Structures
1.
Amino acid sequence: MNTKETKAIFIGSAAPVDGNAAALPLYLSPVKAGFPSPADDYVEDKLNLHTHLVRNEAATFFLHASGDSMTGAGIFDGDLLVVDRSIPAEHNRIVIAAIDGELTVKRLIRHNGKTYLAPENPDYPKIDITNREYVHIWGVVTYAVHKV
């Protein structure tokens, strides 16, 4: 079994390079997992993924996940993580944290006066950060984008 702690690798801010994000076709009909309907083969609108995934551009950045400690939360090795620094890091949210200068992605747990960073894989222990000196919560993960 691969037991590689999930790290976060910074890849950039949410601001589009040229000021414009590409708009892609959006089909308003829901996709069916059964028999397809030929009557639904038309485009209703355009979807800008940047607009859909980024709520606060100035406070949003992207990271790549590396490792398998968050697979139970649907975050896999190589996933693109969308992180918003403007969202409060509250109990049970998935956060990006810097621990001793290294980024990690974990679930923030507050329980009985203690604060933990918890993995979503039973092969890893939770990390008690209650009295840890060099911990900084960078932001809250809002989306994980991965290939199927």
2.
Amino acid sequence: MPTSLIKRIGIALLFFLILNALLGRVETQRAKEELVDTSSYDALTPGEFVGTIALAGFRAMAVDMLWVRAIDLWKEKDWYQALTVYRLISKLQPHFEEAWVTNGWNMAINIAVSKRQKGADAEAWEWVERGLDYLKGGSRGTPRAIISITITAG
């Protein structure tokens, strides 16, 4: 391995470690001043947590790109691919209510209707239940959102 490549990797690693330390200080200050609700990280599995932290400041950009992809999949009526993209968005931005609502709708309506059109009524009802369960999960991630109030009221 050339020494210039090793130097570049070392500089990139050093840069990442410095940014990570600064990000920790910023997050601490934000939590101290109650600018962010840190409880969303408590609900994440270790793998989700590491993925979220590793993206750091690029998380919003990643969510934006995924959201554009989800819109394209929605237009193409590729419900199962959209399902995957919306789940990823929900994991990266657990307080983003629209991702929870849209994916719950996708499961309970779009996928269920497509199953029903194929004559699989029992499987269609399973997708309706999955969609409602997904919305309930979203209501735990977004406790002050309209989805939470609506789901927990009914």
